[in-house]
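Summary of Year 1 activities. Much of the first year was spent building the evaluation harness for sequence design. The harness presents a backbone, in tokenized form, and records the residue chosen at every position. We chose the following record to illustrate the format because it has been used consistently in internal testing since the harness was completed.
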């Protein structure tokens, strides 16, 4: 329990409260804010309840005294908005980044977060509204301890469908500026790992066309499914060759080292069982490792499809084109994150490549070192039992604040012990309105 009044700042025996202590004092606030955040059904696709959620985010930033900017990031005429909260106005920038959209739920109860035995369950607790709240409160800890530099809290929509209405526009919209920068942390559910690299993603939908006919007159039609069968057989040979390419990046198990070419993630065609199918569609999801030449990978697949199109009536559409990401394992940011985790939790966090894609790419593409570090375990992030351990939220908050302390300069050299205690008291009893806008 906090003392009734701040201790004497002139007491030479008094030590300032540690970041760990301040993060632990925020345990209930981490749970409360994450629970409120989860209650907004920001399902993507299609992208619902965005406006109400955006208002709530802005309310929380206001409550914590953080100025913010709302930026229209939609390319499709939707309600997509990037919200950027800023702490500090000089010195290097640390970007704290996360998305507020979530994947569809298995049942509506997933939007009612529940805590039991130290586990907070609900859609978005793991991926990644819980991580965003930990970032927010870590930034407040840094500020209230006298930390300097600049922090940009970047809340984005549309991550779950590629980010064309969100993160992919950050550089274009002037949110990202590479100089001077201390790096970027994305709160994706990486626990217990630090993700320092991620695959690219190039997804194509192929349509093979035929000619419809009644089954009794099948000889007058042209079966698109059979033509697609020949096309897929050829592409399977390519996929087999692709799988022989293995990465030197750190990822387990051994099978995860293979480059990926998934055929048929979605597929189908025809109109009825008694009609010769006039179309058949299927997808190709190419996921090259970050140590492959991404431009060559894309050109190779498109060239293969163009060659097949000379013999089969096919067309294709590019659905996704996402860059890889990579920050060196010996970069200042990576080493700082490793040391912060060790200092806070006593554990050595493995450096690993994410098996999927990460929005760290928008920062590394701009020349900014970036890693993904989140409190949620990846194994449950889109699951019906999605959850995050509350201990992980507390640890993440403390780790983020420690990284900020070690990466950014101090705002003042004479912050007193009493100032630190007062900051902690303010955090223990937040001056926030518990409301939804």
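For this record, the design step produced the sequence shown next.
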């Amino acid at each position: 329990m906090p003392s009734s009044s701040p201790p004497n700042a002139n007491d030479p025996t008094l030590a300032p409260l540690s970041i760990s202590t301040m993060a632990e004092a925020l345990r209930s606030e981490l749970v409360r804010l994450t629970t409120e955040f989860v209650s907004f059904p920001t399902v993507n696709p299609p992208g619902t309840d965005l406006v109400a959620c955006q208002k709530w985010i802005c309310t929380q930033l206001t409550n914590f005294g953080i100025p913010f900017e709302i930026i229209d990031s939609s390319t499709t005429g939707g309600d997509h908005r990037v919200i950027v909260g800023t702490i500090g106005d000089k010195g290097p920038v640390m970007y704290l980044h996360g998305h507020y959209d979530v994947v569809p739920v298995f049942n509506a109860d997933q939007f009612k977060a529940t805590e039991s035995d130290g586990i907070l369950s609900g859609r978005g607790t793991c991926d990644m509204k819980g991580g965003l709240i930990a970032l927010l409160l870590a930034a407040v800890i840094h500020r209230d301890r006298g930390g300097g530099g600049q922090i940009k809290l970047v809340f984005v929509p549309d991550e779950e469908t590629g980010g064309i209405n969100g993160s992919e526009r950050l550089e274009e919209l002037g949110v990202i500026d590479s100089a001077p920068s201390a790096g970027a942390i994305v709160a994706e559910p990486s626990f217990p790992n630090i993700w320092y690299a991620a695959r690219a993603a190039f997804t194509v939908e192929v349509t093979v066309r035929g000619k419809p006919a009644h089954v009794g007159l099948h000889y007058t039609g042209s079966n698109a499914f059979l033509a697609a069968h020949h096309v897929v057989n050829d592409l399977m040979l390519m996929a087999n060759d692709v799988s022989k390419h293995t990465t030197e990046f750190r990822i387990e198990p051994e099978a995860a080292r293979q480059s990926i070419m998934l055929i048929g993630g979605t597929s189908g065609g025809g109109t009825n069982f008694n009609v010769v199918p006039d179309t058949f569609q299927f997808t190709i999801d190419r996921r090259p490792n970050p140590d492959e030449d991404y431009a060559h990978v894309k050109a190779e697949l498109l060239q293969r499809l163009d060659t097949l199109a000379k013999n089969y009536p096919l067309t294709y559409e590019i659905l996704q084109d996402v860059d890889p990401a990579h920050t060196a394992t010996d970069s200042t940011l990576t080493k700082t994150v490793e040391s912060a985790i060790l200092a806070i939790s006593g554990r050595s966090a493995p450096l690993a490549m994410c098996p999927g894609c990460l929005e760290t790419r928008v920062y590394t593409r701009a020349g900014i070192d970036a890693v993904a570090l989140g409190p949620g375990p990846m194994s449950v992030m889109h699951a019906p039992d999605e959850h995050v351990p509350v201990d992980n939220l507390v640890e993440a908050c403390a780790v983020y604040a420690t990284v900020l302390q070690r990466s950014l300069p101090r705002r003042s050299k004479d912050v007193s012990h009493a100032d630190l205690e007062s900051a902690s008291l303010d955090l223990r009893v937040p001056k926030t309105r518990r409301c939804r806008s």
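The chain has two domains: 19-198+325-428, 201-322. Quantitative recovery figures across the full test set are reported in Table 2.
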